[in-house]
């Protein structure tokens, strides 16, 4: 994923005197920074999106997928994931949720618990995951949105624990997108293709079994 183009007309000496522009900040540090800025009592989903800026798509996918690991959350999380996924396909600058969702307030302690669950998992992974094999940002955003949208369908499969594999896959995709790691992204997309193949085959087998029993 490529960064901004250099400003025309600036000499080498000027560039050398400048500090590093927009250094890459690990996702775990971004999440910790959210807690430092969060109000003491409660926050809204809209506040969260405003604070994340360009990281909003990736972190929203990551947090929703993390929530999606919990039993009984599959339909709600699957539905919520379709919103940023479609907007990524449309190359929107940041996710926009309906007002009834964006204005939803929840206690800051819930955000703290969610971040406390995510950070210990992210930090060891960030020692290995790093920016490499950079890909065009717009194209990557559209591809990630398309794959996540396809994976959301698995959340509605009425099979116990069927939410875990797509949720973990979306977490890996989101992390690769956030950390600009093309290697992890390629592996995650391959895993997504395998998940979709197995889910499609399982559904087809179930339908065939029902048809056989009904005949």
What is this entry, summarized?
By secondary structure, the chain is an all-alpha fold.
Structure write-up:
With 215 residues, the protein is mostly helical. It has one domain. Helices cover 66% and strands 3% of the residues. The chain is built from ten helices and two strands, in the order H-H-E-H-H-H-H-E-H-H-H-H. A two-stranded antiparallel ribbon has the order 1-2. Helix 2 packs antiparallel against helix 7 and helix 8 packs antiparallel against helix 9. It is globular, with a radius of gyration of 19 Å. The N and C termini lie far apart (53 Å). The N terminus is likely disordered.
Terminal CA distance reads: 53 Å
Classification by helices and strands: mainly alpha
The helix content, as a percent range, equals 55-70%
Number of strands: 2
Widest β-sheet, arrangement of strands: 1-2
Mean residue pLDDT: 82
Number of helices: 10
Q: Give the amount of beta strand, in percent.
A: under 5%
Series of secondary-structure elements, N-terminal to C-terminal:
HHEHHHHEHHHH
* Main beta-sheet strand count, sense and barrel state: 2 strands, antiparallel
The total domain count is: 1
Radius of gyration: 19 Å
List unreliable stretches of 5+ residues: 2-21
Shape: globular
InterPro entries: ExoD
Protein name: Exopolysaccharide biosynthesis protein
Keywords: Membrane, Transmembrane, Transmembrane helix
Transmembrane segments: 57-83, 144-177, 183-204
